[in-house]
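Backbone-to-sequence.
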């Protein structure tokens, strides 16, 4: 039992990893062909079809695009993968002038621009990573009206010459990406975002669209206020991500269980494994690598060059696993991340949802897997106690944690509970694609069990002036004569051995749930269990208690590729004839991506390649009707793709 705690482990050293830090970046100039001529059209549908190769807008996209194209301000809340980019890219192309995109993700600007250029869109960026010549070139293009989109880091707006540059050119709109960075309580706060409230003063007639995947009403209000977007129309999309399967498994040997999960369900897939501390990141990455999984570490203390290299490899190579602290991930728009695993409990549902949302942007089946147990509850509560900040701040952190714990302990549909947290309704009681729906969790009357635990804590305190952690307490309940029991003659307590009706994991589950519900507190260096104000009522049996049944260690939720309920997405299975074509196309894409120095998905998504393989288009006209192939890509890649498809035919 590698991971069975001897005593509840101490929280890790506080890590300063909990904010995103932009790695200083040096970018090679993208190797894509020079930007072709403008794709001017004032009709958003025409732009969507011709440039992006899509037939229809999704969800709120059309309303947003029409509103912004018409000059209106908008605040857009959409989950990761919901399709936020088109909400400003299409209006930028449909309006005259350049769409200016404010983004904190300097390290990813080159990729974003490359992806647009691959579509034939004239895009550029200005940030601190460029040399003077590169910057001048982009500035000239902007002034000459030769840019459709210009990406800017927010700190550029502090530079007066940059503001004057924007004033001399023609701005079609301002898009404020990752708009929650303006919210001061979030861990993504960027002071430079506060500068953005100046935009409407200088450019009163230029529409602004702020976008975020952070969903709570409080954040939304704060964004609207701080960005002076009070007159903006709000668009709040459904936050459901039906293609993500949510699963929460019990902790204990979690690295081994993670490995089993990867081997059985995601062999060769790209994914992210989140850990709380950098030490755990390094150990987990080493463990996975030793077991033959291609895994890379990422945390804020890694050398900047290594971090950059690992991020670039994750984006460009197929099937890598990134083991990371939450320093990794914002703005990573790799569409084919097939799983996000958490080895430690996230601090809030917002964080959990943002992190898991990085899976399956392409809409294909993906898994969110979280290992959760008593050590998490203890650790997180302690981190809050030890954190700096006033009582109100701690209360806020505690409320966030409580909501996260309630999600872990629920016997109801995880998705329904997640959406309810964001003020949304799933529309059905059970989604059919989370662990509690697939293997219904049961509950039991835990009143007596809770009374036994609380009595043991109470007797130790009152008869012995002692308090102990969970492991020893369980030994007492089970009547185990351990050296510690003998040392303190705890076998003489009246509660010794009163718990032989339950197993050790079951007792751990009872204690975990008591701590999660604040019916027990943990304190001190040894994580001793103590009474809270709410404990006496339960101990006296005045308050009945329903507890979640501990799942069997071996039980694994069935992989549900097809699900009933609310609109599951399933990967199209390829026919015997199409499968080898798909593989040929993937190989061609890998070579092309390498030659051009761009991630493979910038060329074509898997879904597009799959459709090409199964429809086997005869000519360019037929190829152009496939979703994800606009004019730019048809011109650039059409002949090559047709040759790969039909190469074996003649
Ligand atoms: P977000 O920024 O909200 O996370 P993206 O803008 O990256 O999401 O879009 C997610 C994926 O969905 C992208 O691969 C994008 O090409 C695709 N997508 C967005 N809108 C549409 C649409 N109307 N039709 C087809 N695919 C779309
Ligand atoms: Zn469900």
């Amino acid at each position: 039992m590698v991971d069975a705690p001897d005593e509840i482990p101490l929280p890790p050293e506080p890590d300063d990893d909990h904010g995103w830090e932009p790695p200083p970046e040096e970018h090679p100039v993208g190797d894509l062909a020079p930007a072709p001529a403008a794709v001017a059209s004032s009709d958003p549908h025409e732009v969507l079809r011709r440039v992006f190769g899509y037939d229809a807008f999704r969800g709120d996209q059309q309303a947003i695009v029409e509103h912004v194209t018409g000059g209106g301000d908008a605040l857009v809340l959409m989950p990761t993968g919901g399709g936020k980019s088109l909400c400003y890219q299409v209006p930028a192309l449909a309006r005259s002038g350049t769409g200016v995109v404010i983004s904190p993700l300097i390290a990813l600007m080159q990729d974003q621009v490359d992806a647009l250029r691959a579509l034939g869109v004239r895009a550029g960026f200005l940030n601190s990573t460029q040399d003077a010549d590169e910057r001048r070139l982009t500035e000239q293009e902007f002034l000459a009206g030769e840019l459709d989109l210009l990406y800017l880091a927010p700190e550029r707006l502090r530079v007066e010459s940059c503001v004057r540059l924007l004033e001399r050119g023609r701005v079609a709109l301002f898009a404020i990406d990752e708009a929650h960075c303006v919210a001061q309580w979030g861990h993504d706060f960027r002071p430079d975002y506060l500068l953005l409230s100046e935009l409407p003063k200088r450019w009163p007639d230029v529409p602004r669209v702020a976008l975020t995947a952070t969903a709570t009403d409080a954040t939304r209000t704060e964004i609207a206020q701080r960005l002076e977007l009070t007159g903006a129309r709000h668009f709040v999309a459904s936050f459901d991500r039906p293609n993500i399967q949510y699963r929460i498994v019990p902790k204990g040997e979690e690295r081994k269980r993670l490995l089993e999960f990867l081997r059985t369900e995601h062999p060769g897939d790209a994914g992210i494994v989140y850990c709380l501390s950098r030490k755990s990141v390094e150990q987990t990455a080493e463990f996975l690598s030793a077991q033959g999984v291609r895994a890379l570490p990422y945390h804020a203390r890694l050398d900047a060059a290594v971090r950059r290299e690992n991020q670039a490899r994750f984006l460009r190579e197929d099937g890598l696993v990134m083991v990371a602290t939450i320093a990794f991930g914002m703005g990573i728009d790799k569409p084919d991340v097939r799983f996000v695993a958490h080895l430690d409990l996230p601090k809030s549902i917002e964080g959990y949802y943002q992190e898991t949302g990085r899976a399956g942007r392409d809409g294909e089946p993906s898994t969110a897997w979280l290992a959760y147990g008593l050590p998490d509850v203890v650790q997180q509560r302690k981190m809050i106690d030890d954190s700096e900040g006033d009582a109100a701040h701690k209360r806020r952190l505690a409320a966030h944690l409580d909501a996260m714990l309630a999600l872990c302990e629920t016997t109801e549909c995880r998705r329904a509970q997640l959406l309810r947290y964001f003020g949304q309704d799933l529309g059905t009681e059970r989604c059919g694609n989370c662990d509690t729906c697939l293997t219904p969790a049961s509950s039991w009357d835990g009143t007596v069990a809770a009374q036994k635990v609380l009595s043991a804590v109470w007797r130790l305190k009152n008869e012995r002036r002692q308090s102990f952690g969970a492991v020893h307490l369980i030994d007492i309940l089970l009547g185990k004569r351990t050296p510690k029991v003998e040392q303190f003659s705890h076998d003489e307590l009246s509660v010794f051995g009163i718990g032989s009706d339950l197993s050790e994991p079951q007792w751990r589950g009872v204690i975990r749930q008591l701590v999660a519900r604040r019916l027990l507190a943990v304190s001190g260096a040894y994580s001793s269990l103590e009474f809270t104000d709410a404990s006496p009522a339960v101990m006296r049996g005045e308050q009945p208690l329903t507890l979640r049944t501990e799942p069997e260690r071996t039980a694994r939720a069935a992989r549900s590729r097809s699900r009933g309920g609310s609109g599951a997405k399933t990967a199209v299975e390829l026919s015997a004839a199409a499968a080898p074509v798909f593989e040929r196309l993937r190989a061609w894409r890998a070579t092309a991506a390498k030659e051009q120095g761009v991630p493979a998905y910038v060329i074509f998504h898997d879904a597009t390649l799959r459709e090409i393989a199964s429809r086997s288009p005869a000519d360019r006209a037929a190829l152009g009707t496939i979703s994800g192939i606009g004019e730019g890509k048809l011109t650039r890649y059409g002949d090559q793709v047709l040759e790969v498809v039909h190469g074996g035919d003649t």
